[in-house]
Design brief:
CATH topology of the largest domain: Beta-Lactamase
Number of strands: 15
Strand content: 15-25%
Radius of gyration: 50 Å
Order of helices and strands: HHEEEHEEHEEEHEEEEEEEHHHHHHH
Structural class: alpha+beta
Helix content: 40-55%
Largest sheet: 8 strands, mixed
CATH superfamily of the largest domain: PAS domain
Number of helices: 12
Distance between the termini: 100 Å
């Protein structure tokens, strides 16, 4: 993370410079004459870090003041605060770099333009975020990579611009916390990168907001498009509830309701000092605007379906007239007793020829069926020629028994059964049991 990398770089550099002057980080406030020199040494690092990032500003703040004798010295801190006035431009930012806080001599030395509301030091009395972060770092044993923090939306002294800061503590080699550094994300920059591009959704806006107890804290949020409502609206949190069709309802007490979607964002590792702070990225629009938009979409869908239905009806009528009518007429011709003429529809003509061939073949087939099979009739008549013993064996064959089974049933030897078989075959003019069973099956089919 760029904030942690910058904090590590500045911590090592400032701590090394202090040691070169024989001063420890804990003695920083006791040597105010060194503060300007220490800040001057880090100006190049700050400019380089800002160029590499997509932030709108960068800063370093030391927990000391150059004028400790002034009445407000307890709230005044030596710092350098640089702002990039055109953070969305990719080329060199020299022309867009501005000096918001810090010693004037450093700005002149490096040719940096001064903002009209420039101040030499920063009054942190209105920024408890800074003191809370340093207090947490001093009381914690966590690594530097677990001590950074994202601020809720705030404004710098003598400025009305809404910004969000990502800050990490400066920690010396002996563990002394002696300052802070970090990057700024302005609301203008957030709008440049996250404003919805769809022109048809004019009322849609995106917000990055703290999430507490299922409510969005708008007072600490950034917005990608003008928030619909007066400035006092930002002071009231938005309660979240789930609606039908997957949308969420965002409702402020006695204010306009919004509809949209949101996603919780993890800005910290699970073991970080501020892991308990939750953030959410939400995309929403006023509920009346969404209802109007859905009504327009539904009307367009209904008209489109009606047009499609009418087109389908027209196509169906055309197909019926073009293809179904000739087929229906051809089928009507088939019902006539005389021969049907050609319809010039290949499938129908083939069907007519097939049915005509079937009609011609039917009389011959009926004649064949009516003429009895002489061999079969002879077989049936020859049953009368069987002796009682042969008739008994034959009846068992009819019932489906085989020679060995018949021998067991009649308590005869297999040779005796074979003799009966030869006589049965001879009297019926068959040569094998298989041929005999063919006639037997024919008898069963005729239920004889």
């Amino acid at each position: 993370m760029q904030t942690v990398d910058l904090a590590q770089e500045l911590s090592m550099s400032i701590d090394r410079n202090l040691q070169e002057h024989g001063v420890s980080a804990s003695q920083l406030q006791a040597t105010p004459q060194l503060l300007e020199k220490l800040l001057d040494e880090e100006i190049k690092s700050l400019i380089g870090a800002l160029e590499k990032s997509r932030a709108s500003g960068v800063f370093v703040l030391l927990d000391a003041t150059i004028n400790p004798t002034l009445p407000y010295a307890s709230c005044s801190r030596a710092c350098i605060y640089l702002k990039n006035m055109e953070p969305n431009i990719v080329n060199r930012m020299d022309a867009h770099l501005r000096y918001a806080f810090g010693p004037m001599s450093i700005a002149r030395k490096n040719g940096i333009r001064i903002l009209p509301k420039w101040q030499m030091e920063m009054d942190i009395s209105s920024l408890p975020y800074f003191t809370d972060l340093m207090a947490t770092a001093r009381a914690s044993k966590l690594a530097l990579s677990r001590l950074y923090r994202w601020s809720q939306t705030t404004s710098l002294p003598n400025s009305s611009e809404r910004i969000m800061l990502c800050t990490a503590p400066l920690i010396a080699a002996d563990g002394t916390v002696f300052g802070l550094c970090g990057f700024e994300i302005s609301e203008l920059l957030f709008k440049l990168y996250h404003t919805p591009l769809a022109d048809s959704y004019n009322h849609v806006f995106c917000t990055l907001s703290p999430l507490e107890n299922n409510t969005l804290r708008l007072s600490g949020a950034l917005f990608s498009r003008a928030f619909v409502g007066d400035p006092l609206t930002l002071a009231a949190p938005i309660e979240i509830s789930l609606q039908e069709k997957g949308f969420h309802c965002y409702q402020q007490a006695e204010k306009e309701s919004y509809a949209g979607l949101h996603q919780t964002i993890a800005l910290y590792p699970t073991d970080a000092a501020y892991a308990h702070e939750q953030w959410a990225l939400a995309l929403m629009m006023p509920q009346p605007a969404l209802n109007a938009l859905l009504s327009v979409k539904n009307r367009r869908l209904i008209f489109g379906l009606l047009a499609l239905m009418l087109a389908n009806m027209g196509v169906a009528a055309f197909i019926s007239r073009k293809y179904m009518c000739p087929v229906t007429a051809a089928l009507e011709q088939l019902k006539q007793p005389n021969s049907a003429p050609k319809t010039r529809i290949p499938e129908i003509d083939d069907l007519i020829e097939f049915l005509a061939a079937q009609d011609e073949a039917r009389p011959h087939m009926e004649e064949k069926v009516s003429v009895p099979n002489q061999s079969y009739l002879s077989f049936v008549n020859n049953i009368k020629l069987l002796s009682p013993a042969e008739k008994t064996v034959f009846d068992l064959y009819v019932e489906g028994y085989r020679a060995k089974e018949i021998a067991a049933i009649l308590c005869l030897s297999i040779n005796t059964i074979k003799k009966h078989n030869r006589r049965i075959y001879r009297k019926h003019n068959v040569s094998s049991r298989n041929e005999l069973m063919v006639y037997v099956n024919m008898m069963k089919e005729n239920q004889l």
